[in-house]
Here is the input.
Amino acid sequence: MADLKVAIAGAGGRMGAANIRAVHAAQGARLHAALSGIVVHAAFDRAGNGAIGQDAGVFAGLEPLGVLITDDIEAALRGADAIIDFTAPAASVALAERAAKGGLVHVIGTTGCTAEDDAAIRLAGANGARIVKAGNFSLGVNLLAGLVKQAAAVLGEDFDVEIVEMHHNRKVDAPSGTALMLGEAAARGRGIDLTARAVRGRDGITGARRKGDIGFASLRGGTVVGDHTVILAGEAERIELTHRADSRTIFANGAVRAALWAATQPAGFYDMADVLGF
Ligand code: NAD
Here is the structure.
């Protein structure tokens, strides 16, 4: 038995630091029958990031790990079994192609990917990478997605579905990946195509709401880690299903769980529902 050797992509970012802490915290735990543990093997970010050259442990608020954050991606991936990647769409596409060449586990939390980005990432799964990609890695949100699918299926088109999300003021994409994941769950429950029925923000004289649409509203401010509410509004009643994230630890712990799970799966493209067995 050996450790799963993880390279942390975007190590200088908010989720990068959380992922360093989560992998380190899981290090000694006996989490997987086929593995003795999981270690921070390498940490990297793009050239010019302020964390380059720092010890990954110290950067993440831990004791020194003896792993320096580098901008040399190839050096970081040498000897690695897995990449935990919460970066940016172009970086995740390039890393998926690299993961395919090396048969690596690639856990992708990056949001804001286009349909073309997602197609390229899926192709990497068909070409040898073991990819787990999710708009949200927390157990709670994945459970919420199951509840939303069930509620949308039971209530049908008579209940309007609106999804409201709020995030910190540094977030660059909207709606959030989680909001889209919840919208997808509602669409699957209804048996409709989300891209054809999504209304992503309203402004001006929009006309009356079209029956069956799934609406999104995005709020930005402060340090909010991630709040999501799915509203199912009917004739004289309303159901609201809410998840609030208080810490990035929940995403990082989910990413670690996904990496350990994927280590024993054949090459392919998976999501968090596969990992959790939902
Ligand atoms: P951040 O800006 O703090 O960190 C991103 C890091 O990626 C930065 O350090 C940046 O320099 C680095 N990066 C960008 N391009 C790179 C490249 N080519 N090579 C290496 N590193 C590169 O952002 P964040 O808050 O940590 O979020 C990162 C991503 O994760 C966003 O897309 C966010 O929406 C997503 N996210 C997903 C989940 C989830 O559960 N799926 C949870 C939280 C955040």
Remarks:
- The CA atoms of residues 93 and 121 lie 6 Å apart.
